Amino acid sequence: MINLILLGLPGAGKGTASERIVDKYHLTHISTGDMFREAMANKTKVGLEAKSYIDKGNLVPDKVTAKLVEERLGQPDIKNGYILDGFPRTTVQAELLEGITKRLNKPLTNVISLEVNEKTLIKRLSARFMCKNCGATYNKISKMPKVKNTCDRCGGHEFYQREDDKPEVVKNRLKVNEKMNTPLKDFYQKKGLLTVINGEQTPEKVFEDIDTVLSNNQ
């Protein structure tokens, strides 16, 4: 079984990599961002609280996130393994996750970090837009809809740019994330779980490198 964390700054390509991993290994992709966006769309208490942080490019507090993650990992669809995307972001969260995975008997098997330089990240994120109906993500540089102004996934015609993908917010997001990313990588390096992969490569080559790592678990 593969239980995986994907690390990387916003725009590093975690979403694209996750889709390819799910297709091959049939893991359940758990994105805290998706969970919070659903909560925000439904205007739940936790969703509105998360939105106040996310719109400013800041991180959602641990207390709001950890319970949500534990509930999600405890659901029955986590049978072939999971990919955690967006959690943990700090060593404190990593320690919380360690407790969660022990309680649920679903320990981590791999931690993969996608490394991309800041200029590339800003360029990628500022070009990103989403389908208003289903949330599918596109990019003006690398991933336009196959049919102009039509979502590949749901056929919708309305698109928008997230507040936290606007250039002025992107720079703040990267600073906040980068400050916490190094200690987190060190945490998993010491546990022998970390593999670093060059995220500047094509999506195909990035997945090829990830596949090489994960196939050793089969």
From TrEMBL:
It comes from the Bacteria. Pathway: Purine metabolism; AMP biosynthesis via salvage pathway; AMP from ADP: step 1/1. Coiled coil: none annotated. One of its GO terms (biological process) is AMP salvage. The keyword Zinc applies. It catalyses: AMP + ATP = 2 ADP. Residues 128-164 form the Adenylate kinase active site lid domain. The keyword Flavoprotein does not apply. ATP binds at G11, A12, G13, K14, G15, T16, R128, T137, Y138, Q201. This is Adenylate kinase. It comes from Lactobacillus acetotolerans.
